[in-house]
Amino acid sequence: MTEGSGLAAISFGLAASLSWGTSDFSGGLAAKRAHIFAVMVGSYTMGLILLFALAMGRTEAMPAARDLVWAGIAGLAGSVGLTAQYRALAVGRMGIAAPIAAVLGAAVPVMFSAITEGMPGTLQIAGFGVALLGVWLIARAQSGADSADQASAQPDARRGLGLAVIAGLGFGFFFILIDRVSSEAIFWPLIAARGTSLLMLLIIAQASRSQWQPPRAALPVILLAGVLDVGGNTFFVLAAQSGRLDVATVVSSLYPAMTVLLARAMLKEEIARVQGLGIMAALVAILLIAA
Question: How far from chain centre, in Å, is Cα 265?
Answer without folding.
Answer: 22
